[in-house]
Amino acid sequence: MTMAMTLLKLLVGLLVLTGGAEMLVRGASRLAMRFGVSPMIVGMTVVAIGTSTPELAVSVSAAFTGSTDIAMGNVVGSNICNIGLVLGLSALIWPLGVGRETRAFLFIMLASSFLVPIMSLDTQIGRVDGLILLAGMGLMTWWLVANRDRHLVEPPPDLVAETPEDDSDLTFWQQVNKSLDLLPVQIIFIVSGIALLVMGSDLIVDAARIIAMALGVSERVIGLTLVAFNTSLPELATSLVAVIRKDTAIGVGNLIGSNITNVLLVLGATSVVTAVPAGLTVARIVDLAMMLGVEIGLIVAVLRRERVGRAAGAAFVGAYLGYTIYLFVGAAN
Q1: Cα separation of 186 and 181, whole Å?
Q2: Dihedrals φ, ψ of 96, to 5°?
Q3: 152 φ, ψ to 5°?
């Protein structure tokens, strides 16, 4: 494939990805309002699992083909990218309010991330470790369902009644927007949005692999940077669209939930397929320290002001760019 075709595939992937993110955010936010569920919870569950699908697909595929460094790097790199780049850029666009209901999930995110270095002490994350991680994902999901009444909010009055009004004076786009009040349309938007995110990510990852091979860097660096960035594009697209639409709760919930899902579901499923080598080399310790560092930084920012402002967003983006430069400079030496 020529470089021109590779770049074209990259462009098409970005367009598909953006469309999928728009559909997912619209459908999920309307679904949250319909059932009175906090948008933050919807972001942590439906949206987070949906946007983590590319990480799951790439990591399991990499495990099947023996590229376990890519699988491990993808999970760690995606978590770094989600907070450092995606949340940082989102906060630069619009300060992100983080409510009290989110604090427990921030600590669940940090605790799940700490499991990675702990499980790496025996130089690999094996099938038993994977089953423990998957059990953790199941336990968190059960806890969310069991405590769903805590996260209920009153649905807007216009979503309580299903009686349609006269649509004759509405424009086409107003009719489309009104149709989102219907439950089947909300579900279609969510499912279609996730499908488009997966399709767009697949196109982008394929193009990125061709470009990465031309750079001649290690699988670890590819996994931590290009693959991690590309599989984090659904989170990037979804969060930026959510922030632009002022649905910041879905954007923040998506990132926190995605980081939890990446470790418990993605790394758990990957290590069940095959043991993932995870020796604590100096390079890997730096990677894990960066992942834990940005997550601790997020918790500190939230506990201090209950939001992530533009200054914190700039700090996160700066840290991510510095880390990426460090990886490529180290790979070149």
Answers
A1: 7
A2: -100, 115
A3: -85, 140
The tokens for 153 are 């909010």
Among candidates 203, 198, 239, 328, which has minimal Cα distance to 39? 239
User: Tens-of-pLDDT digits for all 333 residues of the chain?
Assistant: 677 788 788 788 778 877 777 787 778 777 776 776 676 677 777 777 776 777 777 777 777 777 767 778 888 998 999 999 999 998 898 888 776 767 788 999 999 999 999 999 988 898 999 999 999 998 987 887 676 555 544 444 444 444 445 555 555 555 666 677 788 888 888 888 888 877 876 777 677 667 767 767 676 787 788 778 777 777 787 788 778 877 777 778 878 888 999 999 989 988 988 888 788 888 889 999 999 999 999 999 888 877 888 899 999 999 999 999 888 777 555
Contact 242, 250 (CB under 8 A): yes
How far apart are the C-alpha atoms of 96 and 313, rounded to whole Å?
9
Global pTM? 0.76
237 within 8 A of 20, measured Cβ to Cβ: yes
Q: Residue 290: is it exposed, middle or buried by C-beta count within 10 angstroms (0-12/13-18/19+)? A: buried
**Which DSSP string corresponds to 211-234?**
HHHHHT--HHHHIIIIIHHHHTHH
Q: At what angle do helices 68-81 and 282-305 cross, to 10 degrees?
A: 20
CA distance 260 to 113: 8
> How many whole angstroms separate alpha carbon 130 and alpha carbon 136?
10
Q: Which residues pair with 263 in a beta bridge?
A: none
Measured CA to CA, the distance from residue 218 to residue 153 in angstroms comes to: 48
Q: Which residues contact 5 (CB under 8 A, 6 or more apart)?
A: none
Quickly count: other Cβ atoms within 10 Å of residue 114's Cβ: 15
Helix, strand, coil: what percent of the chain each, to 5? 80, 5, 15
